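Slack export, channel: ligand-projects

TW: morning all. Re-posting the request from yesterday since it got buried. We need the structure predicted with the small molecule present, not the apo form. The ligand is S-adenosylmethionine; the SMILES is in the block with the sequence. No rush, but it would help planning for next week.
GE: picking it up
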Amino acid sequence: MSFDYSNQLKAVFGKNAEVYAEKFADQSAFQESIDFFCAHIKSNPIVLELGCGPGNLSAYILDKVNPASFTGLDVAPEMIELFQKRFPTHNAVVGDINSFSFEHPLDAIIAGFCVPYLSEFELRSLVKKMKNALTINGLCYWSWILGNNESKTTKSSDGKHQLLMHYYSYEFMKSLFEGSGFEVLNYQEVGEDGVFIWQKS
Ligand SMILES: C[S@@+](CC[C@H](N)C(=O)[O-])C[C@H]1O[C@@H](n2cnc3c(N)ncnc32)[C@H](O)[C@@H]1O
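GE: finished. pasting the full token output, ligand included:
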């Protein structure tokens, strides 16, 4: 990720962290995927959440799963501050997904809507890193905005910022993961959003 793009992400997500936390607090549209993920994860797992934001998705998962270790990673310090306030006993790290060194082994990785901010090159390299970091049968919760493998400059929800976002198709995502040693356990589509639950085979 370029220095400029990283700063743009920090501006968009950092300045709007409180608003974002409230606006997207309700994750119940993804309940099927969340329940599936929680039902299939091993007990007391070691979990890493990429682009955790203020912890909206984490809250649903932590309601059902008792992790041995749970780390939230986000590029925006304001998001990490909210995450840490909400979950003071869990680990909160400010950092970029693309340069973060994954600790091995991980039982599960959660990536809730941080995918639209990753280029195809970054995505391919992330999937490889995830494959190496996960234990056998380790799980991945993966949500993204569906599209035709295109990148578009999109206005942030407050209308104040423009950000390049990436939209990937179902077929692209399926073939990327299956070709990298993952098996689909579940898929849910909610409007323009897709959620896969992957298992490392
Ligand atoms: C749309 S929000 C999703 C937040 C949370 N996962 C949820 O589902 O509510 C995307 C989050 O990913 C973070 N993010 C985007 N690209 C990132 C990167 N390269 N490294 C770390 N965090 C990133 C943003 O700062 C933002 O908090």
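GE: first-pass observations. Residues 3-200 form a domain with the Rossmann fold fold (CATH 3.40.50.150). The helical segments are 3-15, 17-23, 31-40, 56-62, 77-86, 120-133, 170-178.
TW: perfect, thank you
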